[in-house]
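Technical annex B. To support the medicinal chemistry partners, we prepared a structural model of the target in complex with flavin mononucleotide, based solely on the information shown next.
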Amino acid sequence: MQTTAPSFKQLQGTLRQRVPFLYGLLRQGRHRMHWWAKMRYYLHDMKHAVSHMFWDQRVNTYEKLSAELIFQFHKLEKGLCMPGKPRFFGRDPVMATCRLVERWKAQGFAQDDPVFVGAIETLRAYRTRLGDTPPPAADAGPIFEALERALMSVPPQPEFATPRPYRQTDAEVSAMFDQLCQDRRSVRAFDSRVVPLPVLEGAIQAAQLSPSACNRQPCRVHVYRDRERIDALLKLQNGNAGFGHMLTTLLVIAADGNSFFDASERNEPYVDGGLFSMSLILALQARGIATCCLNWCVSPATDLEAHRRGDIPAHHKIIMYLAVGYPLEGALAPKSARRPTDSIVRIH
Ligand SMILES: Cc1cc2nc3c(=O)[nH]c(=O)nc-3n(C[C@H](O)[C@H](O)[C@H](O)COP(=O)(O)O)c2cc1C
């Protein structure tokens, strides 16, 4: 007589009926394992935050200093645009910006870097504004002294002057934007043409105009164009089956943890990363290049391995992969029906 081995489900049933106590213990154990597996994901994120998301006067890397400098001078830039009766503002951020400018100079970082020039032009505009809204007497001395020192021997760069008039988009561009959104679809069939680097760089430059928290611009793009590296990275990702082999360009979009001051900002890499990615996708679409986002829902071990294979520094948090290329002639895309708009909007 032929007997078949009992299935896992049957074994479970038998155990539950005959030895309920043991069954309960094992079930609890399984849940604990599951819970522990999940904890590893959170711990991985925590480690990233603790290791990279902080600023410290003793750590003068370009990444941290540039982020902190933007963070501070952006407060002044915003203040200069506020509506209503002008009043004095910005005592703390102007002092902090001036101190950071000094640290920048002391480190010998480039003084034609847009971050530095942006800070200088903001300080210049702020100093002019103090003519109309002078600081309280107790603050005036230290503020003017710090401004003088920071601006000393740095020539004006009018193209970085701030603030500037806001320009509204005209109706023609608006219609084109809607069309661009209609046309963009995730493509999973590419031809063998390689996207020229200048085209890619143009799209990245457009995506750099995306908003980011305090304008710190944490997004970084890793570009891979060799088969071996693309394959090695794609092997770690579970959503490229059937088309990954057609890719001639793979991007890894990351956010630099150094841009953030502490773990309260733990979600900013994803928010800024998402905004940047969308702009990049549309900018590529506008240049005739198709894309497909590739999720980065991976275990800590896989994440570490991707950093290794992609030569991605540990402080760059991977947000997603992006498949990029010219669409295969006649490529199809799912309709991907959208929910009714009124089902996602609640007007309060
Ligand atoms: C964060 C993110 C991760 C995604 N991951 C994958 C993926 O791994 N593989 C894939 O084929 N599509 C992936 N997609 C594409 C979605 O399936 C697609 O955007 C969605 O179905 C809507 O279709 P559309 O992009 O063509 O409008 C991803 C999209 C996003 C935003």
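Notes passed to the chemistry partners:
The pocket of flavin mononucleotide is lined by residues 185-186, 188, 239, 292-295, 320, 333-334, 336 (CB under 6 Å).
The mean pLDDT is 95.
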